[in-house]
Design goal:
Blueprint: H1 13-18, E1 43-49, E2 62-63, E3 80-81, H2 86-100, E4 102-108, H3 111-120, E5 125-131, H4 141-150, E6 155-159, H5 174-183, E7 187-190, H6 217-222, E8 228-231, H7 238-247, E9 251-254, H8 258-261, H9 264-276, E10 283-284, H10 296-304, H11 311-325, H12 330-336
Parallel strand pairs: 1-4, 4-5, 5-6, 6-7, 7-8, 8-9, 9-10
Antiparallel strand pairs: 2-3
């Protein structure tokens, strides 16, 4: 059973935690709004993966956008192809990051995969650890603490426990939540749908119901200082996610690959609901790039070309919101802008 909430009163510690999260003053530190399509403006990708070329089978692996199409398909005559080697994947990924001025949150397991990308471009990656407590070999809280204190891990996530049939409020996760809160390490958690047929293929314990944003609520109340962002914005449970954003101001979301998984019209209809509900300042860009470096720029273009977003909203999603969530310093923001 989940532990009960700690003794916080509305006029003491909890207020101190929540109040700064709803102030707009940090926005004044961010660069002035300019066109989202202007070359050189920085982008923060909150959702990248450190994969090996063969992680999804012998390369090259084809990918159609949206993935409601499958190669070979007359409507997908030129699918994206993954690189043939690990070296080529790293080289091609870094080339896109440099060309588009992207800083990526790079999640991986084991950490050696993350380090290989970091060695190629130290200033382009924020190291993160992909945690699945149902997987043999996952780091213990004690091991994670050592890596976090050493700076090897700056973000805990993507947490992929859903694939092991484990809910966010499972008691086995409590030491990890407590550690992230204590060390003020941001946490990224997978909620929402997965790939088609997951329970019948490689992830028999996966259940869609475990992706409900409501399963995160007791965790947030027990650990109100947590900085949490929900990957894939809990898609397709948008209304539930909006209710959680409204109730818990410390929570952000990323769009994490939903923009290219589905046709644009469907994705835009979901993103527009977050904007209409007033949460445009808490939506962050994520590509969910795995083994297709060529996916990065089309993922960005889907935001840049959204007809209902203003230039300010595009910059918020592509950079400003993540800069605020990550608490980047004025110096870091200036460096990203070439200043």
């Amino acid at each position: 059973m989940p532990q009960t909430a700690r003794g916080l009163t509305p006029d003491s510690e909890l207020v101190d935690v929540i109040k700064p999260l709803v102030l707009v003053l940090p926005l004044l530190l961010l660069p002035s709004v300019v066109s989202a399509q202007q070359e050189g403006l920085p982008i923060i990708d909150m959702h990248m993966h450190a994969k090996a070329a063969a992680d999804f089978g012998p390369p090259p692996r084809p990918l159609c956008i949206p993935i409601t199409l499958y190669a070979p398909d007359p409507q997908c005559p030129e699918p994206l192809l993954s690189p043939l080697t690990d070296e080529a994947m790293i080289e091609q990924t870094v080339a896109v990051l440099e060309r588009r001025n992207i800083i990526g949150v790079l999640s991986g397991y084991p950490l050696e995969k993350v380090r290989r990308f970091q060695e190629a471009a130290p200033d382009r990656f924020i190291p993160a650890y992909q945690l699945n407590i149902g997987r043999d070999g996952s780091l213990s809280p004690e091991s994670l603490r050592r890596h976090m204190e050493a700076g090897d891990i700056e973000i805990l996530g993507e947490i992929t426990n859903q694939y092991a049939g484990i809910a966010p409020d499972d008691q086995r996760m409590e030491p990890y939540w407590a550690l992230a809160e204590e060390l003020d390490i941001p946490v990224a958690i997978h909620l929402g749908e997965s790939y088609p047929g997951a329970p019948y293929l490689d992830d028999p314990a996966y259940r869609a119901r475990l992706g409900s944003p409501f399963l995160l609520e007791d965790v947030l109340v027990r650990h109100p200082k947590l900085r949490v962002y929900v990957m894939h914005y809990g898609s397709p449970l948008v209304d539930e996610m909006i209710a959680v954003l409204y109730t818990h101001p410390q929570v952000y979301v990323d769009i994490g690959g939903i923009q290219w998984t589905y046709p644009r019209k469907y994705f835009y209809s979901q993103l527009e609901k977050f904007i209409a509900a007033g949460f445009g300042k808490r939506v962050m860009f994520g590509s969910d790039q795995m083994v297709w470096p060529g996916l990065l720029e089309p993922s960005i273009a889907i935001i840049e070309e959204a007809p209902f977003l203003s230039d300010e909203q595009k910059r918020d999603i592509l950079y400003n919101n993540a800069a605020r969530f990550l608490r980047l310093t004025e110096e870091e923001i200036a460096r990203h802008h070439g200043q």
